[in-house]
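Tokens in:
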């Protein structure tokens, strides 16, 4: 008989628990995490003990079935569901099945295994056997590696999309630089003409025109730095292409 959660001394063991303030942020791609949900503390301890014999050991988040309802999280790479009270099985499995992460479920009874296969077909079901723990850890390791690779790919896609947006903005600013310079030249020339005419402006208006003239010069300097940056980027790109060509020539000569 599975003990009630109140009798489990290891109801909530946090080895890698995400900060609640960062719920909207993406999970880390540097630390792999295995979520174990079970009302049997010995099951959780056994899985961790067996996993620690592997070359790479992930962080573990352990929850009982009742605590899962309060601390449900998607920041994990693999979920392992152990023995649960029957009334909590759907409560635990439904949210897990809706995620993209791999889910393993150890079912001590054949009836429970059949129910899990029917209602949550994406879940990998494990039945009691002599080597079930070895199979779970080996399959879990493979799933963690695949999940890590997918997370890194998604992070790379997000970074690439952000870089593309910034590059588009940069290209737009470079393309508009000529129009901006023309507008600035007009503002700068007219402000200088007004400042050169003595008595044409009151003291306060002259102070304001002097500010306009100074800020226009500042904007012009910023645009000039854009021009310098563009030249530097072209020089670096040309150098990189030349180095790549030399490497290709050397490789071809070596062949």
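Residues out:
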């Amino acid at each position: 008989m599975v003990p009630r959660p109140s009798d489990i001394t290891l109801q909530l063991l946090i080895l890698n628990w995400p900060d609640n303030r960062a719920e909207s942020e993406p999970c880390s791609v540097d630390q792999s995490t295995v979520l174990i949900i079970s009302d049997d503390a010995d099951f959780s301890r056994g899985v961790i003990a067996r996993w620690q014999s592997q070359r790479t050991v992930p962080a573990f988040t352990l929850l009982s079935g009742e605590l899962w309802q309060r601390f449900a999280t998607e920041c994990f790479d693999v979920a392992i569901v152990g023995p649960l009270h029957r009334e909590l099985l759907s409560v635990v499995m439904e949210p897990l099945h809706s995620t993209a992460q791999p889910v393993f479920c150890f079912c001590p009874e054949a009836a429970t295994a059949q129910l899990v296969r029917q209602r949550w077909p994406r879940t990998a079901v494990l039945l009691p056997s002599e080597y079930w723990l070895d199979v779970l850890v080996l399959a879990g390791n493979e799933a963690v590696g695949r999940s890590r690779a997918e997370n890194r790919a998604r992070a790379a896609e997000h970074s690439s999309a952000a870089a593309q947006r910034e590059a588009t903005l940069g290209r737009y600013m470079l393309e508009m630089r000529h129009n901006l310079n023309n507008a600035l030249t007009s503002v700068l020339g007219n402000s200088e003409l007004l400042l050169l005419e003595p008595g044409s402006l009151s003291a306060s208006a002259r102070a304001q025109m002097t500010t306009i003239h100074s800020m226009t010069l500042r904007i012009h300097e910023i645009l000039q730095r854009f021009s310098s940056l563009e030249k530097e980027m072209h020089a670096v790109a040309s150098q990189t292409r030349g180095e790549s060509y030399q490497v290709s020539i050397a490789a071809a000569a070596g062949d």
